[in-house]
Specification:
single chain; about 10% strand; 2 domains; about 180 residues; mainly alpha; about 60% helix
């Protein structure tokens, strides 16, 4: 059965039948043969059916839970290249501190940051020269990239900053982790 197929609850019925025709059929027959006070066979059958249903539901839940855990663990494994990028980004953030984390979190939220005459919207506690300094450092580390775009009428240029596409997943992992909860 595929994970997330929507019909996984139907596993209960084959499990129910297997338990009823396996262990519980032996219990039911043994009770019928050796009980000091015999009970109606219908009530024993329905008692075993209820027990089998509860057991099969528990087993089906456990199997689905295990499949979800496997899926989650597979989603969190990184390739060698992804692990290298993750470690490089982590080292850079550890080296450059909370302001770098604030800038990257801000960049990840907005998608880009544009420096032009009016200046960009910045995270609280960081001014434009400090933001520019941090972005230059992170550019040297290969975490962000910039693009100079000429303004109309040859009035200068604006600089567009964004996280490099190669580093996006590493930055996402770091910003989600306990490491960046500052």
């Amino acid at each position: 059965m595929r994970f997330g197929s929507g019909w996984s609850w139907l596993k209960i019925f084959p499990l129910w039948i297997a338990i009823m025709s396996g262990v519980l059929s032996i219990v039911r027959e043994t009770y019928g043969m050796f009980a000091a006070n015999p009970v109606d066979s219908k009530s024993i059958f329905w008692a075993c059916a209820r027990i089998a249903f509860i057991l099969s539901a528990a087993i089906a839940w456990w199997q689905e839970h295990r499949a979800v855990r496997r899926f989650e663990n597979a989603a969190h494994t990184r390739t060698v290249v992804e692990e290298y990028r993750f470690q490089a980004a982590k080292t850079a953030l550890e080296k450059h501190g909370d302001d770098a984390i604030k800038i990257l979190r801000h960049l990840r939220t907005l998608g880009k940051m544009v420096f032009e005459m009016g200046g960009p919207i910045l995270p609280s506690g960081i001014d434009s020269p400090r933001a520019s300094q941090i972005l230059q450092i992170l550019k040297k580390e290969g975490i962000v990239e910039s693009e100079r775009i000429p303004l109309a009428g040859n009035l200068g240029y604006k600089t567009l900053w964004r996280i490099t596409s190669e580093m996006e997943s590493a930055i996402d992992d770091l910003l989600r982790s306990q490491f960046a909860n500052s």
